[in-house]
Design goal:
The chain has 358 residues and is α+β, with helices and mostly antiparallel strands. The chain has 15 helices and nine strands. The protein folds into two domains: 211 residues, Endonuclease III, domain 1 (Orthogonal Bundle), CATH 1.10.340.30; 120 residues, Nucleoside Triphosphate Pyrophosphohydrolase (Alpha-Beta Complex), CATH 3.90.79. Helix 1 crosses helix 11 and helix 2 runs antiparallel to helix 8.
Length: 358
C-alpha cells in the first residue's frame, strides 16, 4: 500500500504543477464533465476545446440539450467525426430528463447505463463529480502503466483490458480519486507521450521499466489492427438553373447516420463518366433530362475513417430545368453534413462553377 500511495502522491504532485488550464477542470458539474468526456473520446484536447465551449453556450443544461432537435446537435458536432457520439449524447440527455427527472446519475454503475458511456467515461464522471474511487483507463493510462511496470500484454486484448483495469484500480488514491484520475490521464498525454516522451523530465525516470530496459518504443503492445476496407464513393452534385441541388439524409446503420450528403453511387472501383451515367441511380434522377457532366476532382479524394478509407469523386451535374425535392445551395449550411462533404462545399464555393459551367 505504501508503494501505491507513493506512486499516486508523486503523480498528483507532478499534475498540480504541470496541469493545463482547461474549462472542464474548473467544475464538478456532472453534465459539463460528461460533455467534455464524450467530446474528447476520439478527439484531441486542442480540437475539442472550442466544441466544448460552444456546446455549453448553446445547451447550458441537460434540459436544453434534451429539448433540442437532433439535427441541431449534429450541426454543432459537425467536424468532430464519430457522429454516433452526438446521437448518443442527445439520446442520453432525453433519458436523464424524461426518466431521471433531470438528475444526473451519481454512481459508476448508474452512469454506465447511459447510452454511449463505457467504463472509462463512467469512471471519470464518478470520480471527478462524486468522488467514487473508480480508476480511469484510456490510451494515455495504458501507455504510462505499460511502460512504467513493463507490461507487454496487448492493451486491445480482452486479457489486457482486464489486467490494466485491475492495476489502475489498485493504484488509485482512494482519498482523492478525482485528482488522481486527472493526473494519470494528463501524465500520459503530456509526459509519457506516444512519440518522444519526456523521460529526462519524468518524475518516475529512476524506476521506469521501459526506460531502464530501453523499451520505450516497444511498449505498449497492441494486437494487429483489423483490415482497412476500401470504398469508392461517387457523389452527384446537382446544379439547376435556379442554383438548387439535391441533398439526402443517410439512414440505417453505418457511417454518418442521419447526416446529409449528395446523391451517392458507391462502386467497387474507380469509375468513369460512361459507367456513371449507366448506373441506375443516375438514370432514376436524371432520365429524360438534358445533363452536362464534369468531374470536379481529377484525383480521388481519400477520406480516412477508423476502419475504412473512402475514395471519392464529385461529379458536377448541370440540368436545364428545375426538378422537385431540391434545396437551395445557400441553405446547405443548415444541414448536418460529414466533414468530407463540408470540405467539398467550401472548396467548390471558391470556384466559378456557381456562375459559369463551361
Amino acid at each position: 500500500m505504501h508503494q501505491t500511495t507513493t506512486f499516486s502522491n508523486a503523480l498528483i504532485h507532478w499534475y498540480l504543477r504541470n496541469k493545463r488550464d482547461l474549462p472542464w477542470r474548473k467544475t464538478t458539474n456532472p453534465y459539463h464533465i460528461w460533455l467534455s468526456e464524450i467530446i474528447l473520446q476520439q478527439t484531441r484536447v486542442e480540437q475539442g476545446y472550442d466544441y466544448y465551449l460552444r456546446f455549453i453556450m448553446q445547451f447550458p443544461t441537460v434540459f436544453d440539450l434534451a429539448n433540442s432537435p437532433e439535427q441541431e446537435v449534429l450541426n454543432l458536432w459537425q467536424g468532430l467525426g464519430y457522429y454516433s457520439r452526438a446521437r448518443n449524447l442527445h439520446f442520453s440527455a432525453k433519458y436523464i430528463v424524461e426518466e431521471l427527472n433531470g438528475v444526473f446519475p451519481s454512481t459508476y454503475d448508474e452512469i454506465l447505463k447511459l447510452k454511449g458511456v463505457g467504463d472509462y467515461t463512467a469512471s471519470a464522471i464518478a470520480s471527478i463529480c462524486f468522488n467514487e474511487p473508480t480508476a480511469v483507463v484510456d490510451g494515455n493510462v495504458y501507455r504510462g502503466l505499460s511502460r512504467y511496470f513493463g507490461i507487454s500484454t496487448p492493451i486491445n486484448s480482452t486479457k489486457g483490458i482486464k489486467e490494466f483495469k485491475i492495476l489502475a484500480q489498485f493504484l488509485i488514491n482512494h482519498s482523492n480519486p478525482a485528482t488522481h484520475n486527472q493526473a494519470i490521464m494528463e501524465f500520459g498525454a503530456r509526459m509519457c507521450k506516444p512519440q518522444n516522451p519526456l523521460c529526462t523530465e519524468c518524475p518516475f525516470n529512476e524506476s521506469c521499466f521501459a526506460l531502464a530496459k530501453n523499451k520505450i518504443k516497444e511498449l505498449p503492445v497492441k494486437e494487429k489492427k483489423i483490415k482497412i476496407k476500401k470504398r469508392h464513393f461517387n457523389y452527384l452534385v446537382l446544379f439547376t438553373p435556379k442554383n438548387k441541388t439535391i441533398i439526402n439524409q443517410r439512414i440505417g446503420k453505418g457511417i454518418w447516420q442521419n447526416l446529409y450528403e449528395f446523391p451517392l453511387i458507391e462502386s467497387k472501383k474507380k469509375i468513369d463518366e460512361i459507367e456513371l451515367i449507366e448506373h441506375n441511380t443516375f438514370k432514376e434522377l436524371f432520365e429524360n433530362k438534358n445533363t452536362i457532366i464534369r468531374l470536379f476532382n481529377t484525383e480521388e479524394k481519400v477520406h480516412k475513417l477508423s476502419h475504412q478509407h473512402l475514395y471519392t469523386q464529385f461529379w458536377i451535374v448541370k440540368i436545364d430545368a428545375e426538378i422537385s425535392n431540391t434545396t437551395d445551395w445557400n441553405k446547405l449550411e443548415e444541414f448536418p453534413i460529414p466533414r468530407l462533404i463540408d470540405n467539398f462545399i467550401n472548396e467548390i464555393k471558391q470556384t466559378e462553377i456557381f456562375s459559369t459551367f463551361e
